[in-house]
Amino acid sequence: MPHLSTKLAIVNEEPKPNETERTLIYTAKSIVLVALLFILCSLIGMSVYFWKDSSGQLKSANTAAVAAENAKAVEKVNLIPTDAWKAPEESTIPDNEYGNMIRYGRELIKNTAKYLGPNGSVARISNGMNCQNCHLEAGTKTFGNNYSVFFASYPKKSARSGKMADATERIADCFQRSLNGKVPELSGKEVQAMLAYMKWLGSEQEKGKAAFGSGTEKLKYMDRAADPQKGLLVYQNKCQSCHGQHGEGIKAEDQQAYVYPPLWGAHSYNDGAGMYRLNNFAGFVKNNMPFGVRYPDAQLTDEECWDVAAFVNTQPRPHKEQAQDYPDRSVKPIDAPYGPYLDKFSEQQHKYGPFTPIVLALKEMESKSDLK
Ligand code: HEC
Ligand code: HEC
User: Fold this and answer.
1) Which keywords annotate this record (predicted)?
2) Torsion (CA) 238, 261, 191, 166 in degrees, nearest 10
């Protein structure tokens, strides 16, 4: 291989550096090495510095976020005014016969089915639901359809019947409608115990005074009608896991009461019940469902509440004859789902909205009749 040997020859022919040149090259190499080391060190140093700095920044960003969260929490706590309604202390239940009535009343609200359901031990007059399924935490929860102002507002004229009504008749209403059952004996021990409990609950409530957090929250009306199609999606995503694909709920092992109560079908509230009205349903869901939600930490938007209310209340349920309801049409709630009405809006619009045009029309009628 002559080629290679020539190359080798050429390499070999390079002049050999002398002693001074070698020292020079050696020094140059060292300088380059030191410079490289210096650059490397400063790079490491700088990155450590910046890393530290940015983590410091991260830290302060985190602190800011936590502070903002805390501020929000404080703001939310502030949304519940200090004079909001609260149930009286347990210790205020007297330690006597009357106190026992109060306690029995509370037990009946919590476990209605056990005593008065289809297999009830006292009477069999209702559908298996408990009052507490809708009046949460035995009727004590803020915006959980509580009994705060109930006792203080009776006796009063019932808009639904048009007659002066006693508090016991209002209790009976929920038996007939919400529990799709029979009227219990109004002077009987059970109704009287429930009444004693509600009286105790409302004992710090002044008559005629509105308490913050009472009943359920009244949601703002939407500009459009509530939409059952949109409500179906809310139902599937947020409700179905507990209340079931067919709204049938899930019964407890002993088959007495429900773990998850039904929202429609044969065992649910009938179409004469308060929950069948969109305002009540949407307002209830807002601060209470999915189960565990509490004011002011609602999970659903108002729109989702209206739409899911429309969906659930288009599903089949027991019927209650209600031609006799609201003889005075001027006090009929605008979302009462059955006519006749004072205005000319359709039954459909009264059931699903939009409600604002109805409110405005009724106001105008009222101001005209005031002028007369
Ligand atoms: C399916 C849900 C549901 C169930 C179950 C239910 N209720 Fe109600 N109840 C309501 C709704 C909704 C209202 C508010 C209705 C309205 O304003 O028209 C209401 C209102 C009441 C009120 C009037 C409260 C007030 O401040 O004026 C009383 C009293 C009452 N219910 C008692 C009972 C009792 C007792 C039971 C059990 C036997 C019961 N409810 C079961 C939904 C229910
Ligand atoms: C994690 C389970 C769970 C989810 C999810 C849930 N619920 Fe409930 N719901 C309950 C329970 C439990 C009760 C009864 C509460 C009690 O007895 O204390 C209830 C009660 C109700 C009631 C009153 C009682 C009745 O049967 O009529 C309505 C109305 C209701 N839920 C609607 C909804 C809607 C609408 C959604 C979806 C936005 C929803 N729930 C999601 C568990 C759930």
Assistant:
1) Heme, Iron, Membrane, Metal-binding, Transmembrane, Transmembrane helix
2) 40
Q: Which residue has its alpha carbon closest to ligand 2 atom 15? A: 133
In ligand 2, which atom is closest to the CA atom of 269? 27
Residue nearest to atom 1 of ligand 2 (CA): 291
User: How far apart are alpha carbons 110 and 130 in whole angstroms?
Assistant: 6
- Structure tokens of 210? 């509105």
241 lines ligand 2 (CB under 6 A): yes
C-alpha torsion sign, points 211, 214, 217, 220 = negative
The pLDDT tens digits along the chain (372 residues) read: 445 444 444 444 455 557 777 767 666 677 667 677 766 656 655 654 555 444 445 545 566 666 777 666 666 666 888 888 999 999 999 999 999 999 999 999 999 999 999 999 999 999 999 999 999 999 999 999 999 999 999 999 999 999 999 999 999 999 999 999 999 999 999 999 999 999 999 998 888 888 899 999 999 999 999 999 999 999 999 999 999 999 999 999 988 899 999 999 999 999 999 999 999 999 999 999 999 999 999 999 999 999 999 999 999 999 999 889 999 999 999 999 999 999 999 999 999 999 999 999 999 998 988 765
State how far the Cα of 141 lies from the Cα of 128, in Å rounded to an integer: 22
Distance from residue 351's CA to the centre of ligand 2 (Å): 21
Separation of CA 194 and ligand 2 centre (Å): 23
User: Cα 268 vs. chain centroid, distance in angstroms?
Assistant: 20
Residue spans in the chain of domains classed CATH 1.10.760.10: 83-209, 216-319+335-372
| Ligand 2 atom closest to residue 136's alpha carbon, by position in its atom list | 18
Q: CA-to-CA distance for 144 and 73, rounded, in angstroms?
A: 21
Q: Which CATH number fits domain 83-209: 1.10.10.10, 3.40.50.1820, 1.10.760.10, 3.30.559.30?
A: 1.10.760.10
Residue labelled with tokens 């022919």:
13
Q: Which CATH architecture has domain 216-319+335-372?
A: Orthogonal Bundle (1.10)
> Which residues 6+ apart lie within 8 Å of 33 measured at CB?
none
